[in-house]
């Protein structure tokens, strides 16, 4: 623990118990979508938030209540670890001046455009399955 991260979760359940209700609903919805799209992925805590991986990190969920993520207040971010490799013709994802990571902020479950999010998750999983695209 340090000044930036004043706590350390021991499990995903502890992380979920910490979240305010409005963030928890979005996090649970995103988790379910990730598990539906990438059923063989592993979920682990890193930087006090859940990351999802198969061969390498594919994506993560970062709620604003977890410090130092620079997430807008009351938002939950779905981030793609190799987002710069994703085909983003819709300009749906934000780079925020990052080289590789791309992300989308959600303030409620109704904002999650299921078909679009699934498309990005399927493509991110495909990128993870091809080591030459890393």
Helix and strand layout, with pairings?
Blueprint: H1 12-18, H2 21-37, E1 42-46, E2 49-53, E3 57-63, E4 76-80, E5 102-106, H3 114-129
Antiparallel strand pairs: 1-2, 2-3, 3-4, 4-5
What's the CATH class label?
Alpha Beta
What's the total helix number? 3
Order of helices and strands: HHEEEEEH
* CATH fold category name: Aspartate Aminotransferase, domain 1
Q: Tell me what portion of residues adopts beta-strand conformation.
A: 15-25%
Q: Please give the alpha-carbon distance between the first and last residues.
A: 31 Å
Q: How are the strands ordered across the major sheet?
A: 1-2-3-4-5
Q: Give helix % range.
A: 25-40%
- How many structural domains can be distinguished in the coordinates? 1
Largest sheet: 5 strands, antiparallel
Poorly predicted regions are: none
- The best one-word shape is globular
| C-alpha Rg (nearest Å) | 14 Å
Would you tell me the structural class of the helices and strands? alpha+beta
Kindly state the number of beta strands.
Answer: 5
Mean pLDDT score: 92
Specify the CATH architecture: Alpha-Beta Complex
Description:
The chain is globular, with a radius of gyration of 14 Å. A hairpin with a 3-residue loop joins strand 2 and strand 3. The termini are far apart. It has a five-stranded antiparallel sheet. It has a single domain, classed as Aspartate Aminotransferase, domain 1 (Alpha-Beta Complex). The chain is built from three helices and five strands. The mean pLDDT is 92. With 134 residues, the protein is an alpha+beta fold. Helices cover 30% and strands 20% of the residues.
